[in-house]
Amino acid sequence: MKAIRVLCVVLAVLLSLGACTPKDEKAGEAAKADAAVKSEEAAPAQAAPAGPSPEVLVKTSMGEFVVELRPDLTPVTVENFLSYVDEGFYDGKIFHRVIDGFMIQGGGFDADMKQDATRAPIVNEAPKGLENLAGTIAMARTGEIDSATAQFFINVKDNYFLNHVPGNQKKFGYVAFGRVVQGMDVVYRIAKVETGVKGYYRDVPQTPVIIESVTRVGAAD
User: Fold this and answer.
1) Where does the record locate the signal sequence feature (predicted)?
2) How far apart are CA 133 and CA 154, in angstroms?
């Protein structure tokens, strides 16, 4: 009799898992995002830096947020990002790719989907970077491992599949080089805008989310 009860419990669990549709999963992710907005403004903390770290203030048409960078882990990536910041490269760009429950990507296109020339690509420091957890900022790239230039994205959920997998070139990963420490609610709001197709590009916000400016607000000595 006990064996029959155990079998019934196992079958019930399997049936409940099988009933989980993509729609259910999206609803669950949305609930998690809403809860995160209500409960905190900063991304989850990972290994803390040993000393002061540079921070940048990102002002957008939907609000502003502050990102703490990690040159102690990813010096090449942070130096590259700050070089674009210092020259005002990001000012007037948009978040051109927004996928709720995944990430918001920007820093490459203006509102007319035009791109400016960038510096040469940099080495991928994913093996040394942070995990791609909700609120971390990471460099976008093509299928080539060392192809990141100026575009970045901010994770709006824990995207473990973007992390570096040692010994696997196909899963080399995306380098996360900082995290949002103020204004994570703004990031979540951006993630929920209506998107569509614009030219060759998908997941483009129907109303442009403009990056008005990115400026330093603190730096390590």
Assistant:
1) 1-18
2) 9
Structure-token pair, residue 78: 């942070």
Containing H/E element for 12?
Answer: helix 2-18
**Helix-then-strand count for the chain, H and E:** 4, 10
Please provide the size of the chain in residues: 221
In this prediction the pTM is 0.79
152 burial level (CB within 10 Å; 0-12, 13-18, 19+): buried
| Measured distance CA(188)–CA(154) in Å, rounded | 10
Q: How far apart are CA 56 and CA 85, in angstroms?
A: 8
Read off the pLDDT of residues 166-177 as tens digits, 9 standing for 90 and up. Answer: 999 999 999 999
Q: How many whole angstroms separate alpha carbon 109 and alpha carbon 125?
A: 24
CATH fold group of domain 55-218: Cyclophilin (2.40.100)
For residue 39, what pLDDT is reported?
A: 39
Q: What is the pLDDT of residue 4?
A: 44
Mean pLDDT score of the chain, rounded to an integer? 85
Which alpha helices (H) appear in 64-154, and where do they start and end? 75-86
Whole-angstrom Cα distance, residue 1 to residue 145?
57
